[in-house]
Amino acid sequence: MGIDSPLPSQPSARKQEEAPGPGSTIEDVAYWEGLEHTDEFRQLVTARMRFVLPATVFFLVYYFLLPLANGLAPGFMRTAVIGHINIAYLFALSQFVMAWLLAWFYIRKANNVFDRLAAMVRDRAARGRSSQP
Amino acid sequence: MNLTLALFLIVVGITLVITGWAARRTRTTVQFWAAGRGITGWQNGLAIAGDYMSAASFLGIAGLIAFNGYDGFMYSVGWLVAYLTVLFLIAEPMRNTGKYTLADVLSYRMSPIPVRSAAAFSTVAVSASYMMAQMIGAGSLIKILIPTLDSTLKPWFNWTVFGTKLDPSITVVGLLMMVYVIAGGMVATTWVQIVKAVLLMGGAVLLSFLVLLHFGFNLGGFFDAIAGVKDKATGLNFTDPGILYKYGQKQVFGIDLALLDNVSLGMALILGTAGLPHILMRFFTVPNGKAARQSVVWAMGLIGSFYIMTTFLGFGAATLVGKTKICATVTAGCKPNSNLAAPRLAEYLGTQFFGGTGGEFLLAFIAAVAFATILAVVAGLTLAASGAFSHDFYVNVIRTHILHGHVSDREQVTVARITAGLVGLLSIWLAARVGATANAAALVAGVAFVIASAANLPAILFTLFWKRFNTWGAVASLVGGTLVTIWLVAIGPGWTVPVNEHPAFPLQNVGIVSIPIGFALAIIGTYLGELARADRLAEQKFHEIDVRAQTGLGAEPVPAAG
Description:
Chain A is mostly helical.
């Protein structure tokens, strides 16, 4: 859908405090579906998924490696590296670093990319509504 | 007057002043449930960290490490990594679509009556198990840390309620928590949580610093000392894995039992956090999705630093105090109690660096912090449980959809206060009743995480991200996931005292079985619902929640101050 194509307006724009209930109409559905099909929204979803999916798979694998390694290769995990500090302890500590790093990457991505795209979708929705006669 | 009691009264005094201040800011529903959505990112981060660093993790993990070495640290790791699930998938969509409770998000797409009732059921199940665990722990801790309180109040508690003798310590905790929640709602609960988080971090930093000072800031020397501590049963060093999880001893389904238990625990920790109602509720207190995201990052920084410090506390207690001296009353051959590792370490370090009074003071300080911790966490849980009952069930099911009435803001707040009071009274009674079984506390807290991941998480994730998901699927996971988890725990080992040697279900941590079942129920329920053509609106309404969750369009606004 191009930038200039008209967006279905939201006919039953309900008060924001009102709980969304079974009252939504076919026009409502069309309004949200229209927004869902805009380029901005698609870009937002793609950008987010491109980060979140691999990051989630990565941290799940990295996390479960720790109990698995402790259980399956205890001898290896007990190997001392520096003094009496062993691989098991360092691997556990690295989980903290991993979690903080991933969180930091996410925040950077979200502040720089996701927020901008989300604002564009909201702008578009506002324009769509104001074009209502 | 006894020093511990004095410090304890100061902590209670501070929290009551906060509550008095908050009470004047708690008139409307949005103030009561969501602190007027005026909590900033870092404040909410501190409060989330506070909700999370319960007495179980402060005293519990330090104790586990002090008694079992490395394996105790596994809890800390799981509890931090869990926040990545919250950050990536839950925090922002929750703020963008929700109002006060989990069910608000689900009912965007689903039929409100069944889905709100089911969510209220699972929320109460999670909060009640978590709360009982905290209150049982609170009762036993106060008896040990502030024995004068319990013995002074004892004569007043010589009667029974429905066949259960109330416990003085548990009752004091319960009554204080009711005051916070009923008078101050979310504003008071959040600020009590923040004050407690700061005290707790301060205590942990001080103790870690003193442990390192004792070893002359020589980490190598510290670890040499830890490796010098041996586990009696296995002969392993305290730096090695395998003391708590005895790998290679028993097998089930051809897989090592200890390994399965450990992985199963990890699943519940990693996935359960994202479904805990009292954590989810915190995201409704901030102004927007961006603040929700920032609060998770603040929480991760605090929780991570805190859990790394638990190794200093735990290993410090193991090397400096020693398991045999971690008891309620230290005598030769006394009965060790792992919950006291941090307090006994505080006493030891205080005495070493500041003399006898210093030791007494540090012990009293840590005891008071532990008490504040318990109070703050149970207050948050009460709020979540009463939210599920009064907002979801009473206001939105009974009054709005069954009686088709209009519920005024005033009535909603009144009902919320009454339910908070009832939840408080019920938990005082339940904790006194279940408290009799010794081993229950830790187990019951674990159940809360498993129910949250088997029942709540599939419902939330599929509502946000799966177009075909419908009411049948949501109800199947919320009710089915809860019931399956409770059933598996009930037939597993460890529920009965003494421990059942041949349980019908072999694992203590049931997550590895019940979490996949919860997700499967959500999927099967959805397809059955489609076959029955029960709920065709849910798929159409996906567009709305999809756009709202991703962009924050039309999110609940921040009300004008007043």
